[in-house]
């Protein structure tokens, strides 16, 4: 099993990797399919199903789909150009993606939210269609946004496609047990094995790529700590990270802060990221946008507040974390629409705990223990965003997830790696819990806080 560190950590835009980035990626794939078709299309149509329909407005799924069909992509997203394109499409009712000319597309009639027909493969389903001159469908494809910006066609999902094709890797662990056994036999750390797998897939520039990912994360924290005002969407949620950070700086300067206030630093870093995500800013999936604040908050905490931290170990942190993220995705889910927030913030906390444990000298067994502790104490967590927005409870939830990750790493380092619940058992429990969880608690905004808190 191989999932690259750059599959887990993808640079993109908010507010959602599954509901914003995924549909944009799906649209780009459909345009490629259309470019290769032996006929000319005259128009486009799209329908959103399941969770993409129920929470699509709050997650900007409609906006992402339109922009994707116009040729925009998450990794090269330009907010100003996107706003101009949306205004143009609204007025002129066509898109003009590269190589396809002008194609009729009126958002009011050609983009449909289908609340009654969920697609069978995954809660995040969408159907994209090309039309001929008289408006008949001449090409149709179903796409599933399966979390973290990953997109599969209906056929790919049915085939069980789970990893990128390519040459074999030297350490193809599919479970935590296999990972630990390979570490014991090879004498390598989890990060070293993961790095060897990346190299086997032709990525000699892993450290440079990780440093860029961390820089984007760090810049996101900085922007979030400087920003103020009300987040978009209608809930009138006020940004808080910057003011909390200012208070912490003031207290530190006067030596007033009690030791437990380090938790507030961690929360401020995480909330800064998720406030940026909620505003549609540039973030890194870690492993999703809804959980994008956990990992950068823990890395920032480590670099800023732990005296032994060094920038040179950032690569080790990310490689270790991505190994855990790959196991969770391969054996369970990182999608809130599929398994609730345990699959998003829970996975992120497990990844961050493992990475922190690694750079603080943990053995592979202690690292596996750290990941298990963090994930275990998110089991059963629902995904119930108020008004379908990635704001309440998502922003604070990332802060608490980061705190749990730090605590999990610390507890694991106090032991010798031996523990009662294996990480594999915890991941399987998360999968089963997600399967059994009622649909209204899986990113539909039909249950939980979403129905018990006023939306205005």
Which terms summarize this structure?
single chain, 456 residues, alpha+beta, 60s Ribosomal Protein L30, Chain: A, 2-methylcitrate dehydratase PrpD, five-stranded mixed β-sheet, two-stranded antiparallel sheet, 20 helices, 9 strands
Q: How much β-strand is present in the residues?
A: 5-15%
Q: How many distinct helices? A: 20
Helix and strand composition category? alpha+beta
Please state the overall shape, judged from the principal axes of the Cα atoms.
globular
Mean pLDDT: 95
Major β-sheet, in short?
Answer: 5 strands, mixed
Reading the helices and strands in chain order gives HEHEHHHEEHEEEEHHHHHHEHHHHHHHH
CATH architecture of the largest domain: Orthogonal Bundle
Write the layout of secondary structure elements.
Layout: H1 5-8, E1 11-13, H2 17-35, E2 43-50, H3 51-54, H4 61-69, H5 79-92, E3 94-95, E4 103-104, H6 107-110, E5 111-114, E6 124-131, E7 137-147, E8 150-153, H7 154-159, H8 176-186, H9 190-200, H10 206-226, H11 241-253, H12 262-278, E9 282-284, H13 294-305, H14 314-331, H15 336-339, H16 345-359, H17 364-376, H18 394-413, H19 423-436, H20 449-452
Parallel strand pairs: 2-5
Antiparallel strand pairs: 1-9, 2-6, 3-4, 6-7, 7-8
Describe what you observe in this structure.
This protein is of the alpha+beta class and 456 residues long. Helices cover 51% and strands 10% of the residues. Strands 5-2-6-7-8 form a 5-stranded mixed sheet. A two-stranded antiparallel sheet has the order 1-9. It has a two-stranded antiparallel sheet with strand order 3-4. It is globular and about 70 Å long. The termini are far apart. 54% of the residues are buried. The model has no long low-confidence stretch (mean pLDDT 95).
